[in-house]
Design goal:
2 copies of one chain form a homodimer.
Chain A: H1 3-9, H2 24-34, E1 46-51, H3 54-63, E2 75-81, H4 83-116, E3 120-121, H5 129-136, E4 143-151, H6 166-169, E5 170-173
Antiparallel strand pairs in A: 1-2, 2-4, 3-4
Helix pairs in contact in A: 1-4, 2-4, 3-5
């Protein structure tokens, strides 16, 4: 699939075709895309939980301020940062900046790879981190930074959300 | 260009063909790719400085702990977060997490769009934020989060850096 079409085709998909599962080979392809992201000093401060268990999905939806659509996706990927992996080399800048940026780049790759695979997904950031950690019994060195439901979209994708105009967010220094 | 090829073809490019400029239409295309990134509540907490001025590029290279290769790129894009734009709606989570994630997703889009345009680029995160702000006379509401030199690569791209194996960074919860 053409790169620019994938880029323009990405939407936040929040309703999924409940009849159609996502084969594990395709999930693997999404994860391989995620780990192609660059990371500061190639630390790769990331970890991914692939959740198919229904009660775990429901616990995540609850941690995400009752966003129940989460639990209707066949697969929910919880992306975690490992801040101390970046801090070893970069101290606080690694802990508070690089580990968040690196995982965010991985998430964006994952979302684009979902589009290129005919899937829909959504970056959910609004959740209680402690509750989400409890839901998956996360080890304390991992910080959940996004919950990403993945599935085949239930309907034609919505319109893309508006963007601020380029001239409002760009300045040239000649 | 095929999405998967773009994804696999991305490298950190640190040496540029000094003879070949990057047309402004192509820079615009990269920025349009950047702003296609998702953002929490569609806040779009980003701002981009497109730097072609030689003394500004040198000042940025110096702020980046003397990474002089920066100043050899025809174009240097400084990506800024606007943390308070996300904080209005999301408080501290917007300020310290979403605004960093949203700009990181935009940077990843920009890097991939560079590959799809035959360009090379590099995500530089190691710099003194205050010095970089001074170099561009940034307004205080903008926080520089990455410096991205962009140009045509001087040579065939290097090998991709190693990745941790998928089974070391993924756990399935069935």
């Amino acid at each position: 699939m053409d790169f620019w079409q994938v880029l323009e085709g990405r939407r936040s998909v929040r309703s999924f075709n409940g009849e159609r599962d996502v084969p594990s080979e395709i999930v693997t392809r999404l994860l391989q895309a995620a780990i192609r992201a660059p990371s500061a000093g190639n630390c790769q401060p990331w970890y991914f939980f692939v959740v198919r268990n229904q009660s775990a999905k429901r616990a995540l939806a609850q941690a995400a301020l009752n966003q129940w659509f989460l639990s209707e996706a066949p697969v929910v990927i919880v992306v975690c940062a490992e801040p101390e992996r970046s801090a070893i080399r970069y101290g606080d800048r690694g802990r508070r900046l690089y580990s968040l940026q690196d995982t965010a780049a991985a998430i964006e790759n994952l979302l684009l790879a979902a589009v290129a695979s005919g899937l829909g997904a959504c970056w959910v950031g609004a959740f209680d981190e402690e509750e989400a950690s409890l839901a998956l019994d996360l080890p304390s060195h991992l910080r959940p930074v996004a919950i990403v439901p993945v599935g085949y979209p239930a309907r034609r994708p919505s319109l893309s959300t508006d963007r601020r105009r380029l001239d409002a967010v760009v300045k040239e220094i000649e």
